[in-house]
Amino acid sequence: MTSHIIPTDIATTIVDPKAHADPARLDGAFRWLRQNQPLGVAQLEGCDPFWAVTRHADILEISRQNALFLNGTRSTTFTNRALAQKVHAITGTPHLVRSLVQLDPPEHTDYRLLTQSWFMPANLRRLDATLRDLAREHVDAMAARGGRCDFVADVAVWYPLRVIMEILGVPREDEARMLKLTQELFGSTDPELNRGGGSLEMLSDDAALAQLQSVVADFFMYFNALTEDRRAHPRDDVASVIANGQIDGKPLDPFNAMSYYVIIAAAGHDTTSSSTAGGLWALIEHPEEFRKLKADPSLIAGFVDEAIRWTTPVRHFMRTAVQDYELRGRRIAAGDWLMLCYPSGNRDEEVFDDPYAFRIDRSPNRHLAFGYGAHLCLGQHLAKMEMRALFEELIPRLDSIELDGTPALSAANFVNGPKRLPIRYVMR
């Protein structure tokens, strides 16, 4: 087993929120792992050891076997031992929320089927006109800003937010509240985004957990009121499906129902916002790709997939082995914890030709940004539709674009993306 141990500095880097805001540092660590220890054990002080799974093929192999590698028995996101114990003491589970992400079959299947039809292409086609109108509205607003904006704060966060709130049934006047709660949830380790405004080093485990509890409680309070409204006055929206849904003839467990709302409300827009902003940032840094896209708008669909691969907003998920398993000649024991490292899989030299090049016409593009297997992202089709609609409106009107300051990524090791993208541009 000693030969499997990852050097401490490398193991520290892949879980350090600040490293996820520093692509060169993080890419260096993952590149070293793929070349030297593609399946190795990280042993960090105060944390349970875990296998870091960094190769594309290995991530697929684990992801397709949901009965052998479970989501729900331990934390589905990386956490230290003290925080894990505190969460369990509060909720009686390893999770502060228990959404589709934390559920295993057959429960996962039952809950997923409740809303799955809403996010399938056949149903989403009826939203096409709405998406186009919203995309045009946001591009018009960008044009009206006079050639300068922060693309994250002014465009990228609001457009996907409006789309998912429309589907969920949250009124427009509550969108700013949903955005703030989402940023506080996923940006809990970023001093500019978390609720308390402190850096991770300044927060004790108790303070960090108290902040997250407060955010989750605010989400739950909001969606509890929405549930009561939709039970009394059901509508044609996802909130009504969750509020009135049944599993085995019984209403949804309240904790699971509130968690269901949270994952759709938060993940349903934040990851798309990140890929949208990340895609535009990549076009600015690769002007030859911007020129190709301008010359041939039919490349937008490929650009969208490459933007999602390039950004990889969901950085990892954890799995727990339920029985011994051999992978890459190494024995994973029952009870072992594994980290699926999606940014590494999406830069795997065995799968992607020149993986550190941004290519809008990359084909095939077998990225892992939406996960794989039973937990494949429920909203993947919607996310790509949204991005295509926005860029099909934006690119023909955008004559030139450049940075107008220093962009920045969020310091977060679970869900990550651009938090600032100041730009200067000329639009028609």
Quick rundown:
By secondary structure, the chain is an alpha+beta fold.
Describe this structure in words.
This protein is α+β, with helices and mostly antiparallel strands. It has one domain: Cytochrome P450 (Cytochrome p450, Orthogonal Bundle). 48% of the residues lie in helices and 12% in strands. It contains 17 helices and 14 strands. A 5-stranded mixed sheet has the order 1-2-10-7-3, with helices on both faces. Strands 4-14-11 form a 3-stranded antiparallel sheet. Strands 5-6 form a two-stranded antiparallel ribbon. α1 packs across α2, α10 (175-186) crosses α13 (254-285) and α13 (254-285) runs parallel beside α17 (380-394). The longest helix has 32 residues, at 254-285.
Number of domains: 1
Largest sheet: 5 strands, mixed
Specify Rg, calculated over alpha carbons: 21 Å
CATH architecture: Orthogonal Bundle
Distance between the termini: 61 Å
CATH homology superfamily name: Cytochrome P450
List the helices and strands and how they pair.
Blueprint: H1 8-15, H2 23-36, E1 39-42, E2 50-53, H3 56-63, E3 69-70, H4 81-91, H5 107-115, H6 121-124, H7 128-143, E4 148-150, H8 151-156, H9 158-168, H10 175-186, H11 205-232, H12 238-244, E5 246-247, E6 250-251, H13 254-285, H14 287-295, H15 300-311, E7 316-321, E8 325-327, E9 330-332, E10 337-341, H16 342-345, H17 380-394, E11 398-403, E12 408-409, E13 418-420, E14 422-427
Parallel strand pairs: 2-10
Antiparallel strand pairs: 1-2, 3-7, 4-14, 5-6, 7-10, 8-9, 11-14, 12-13
Helix pairs in contact: 1-2, 7-9, 7-17, 9-13, 10-11, 10-13, 11-12, 11-13, 13-15, 13-17, 15-17
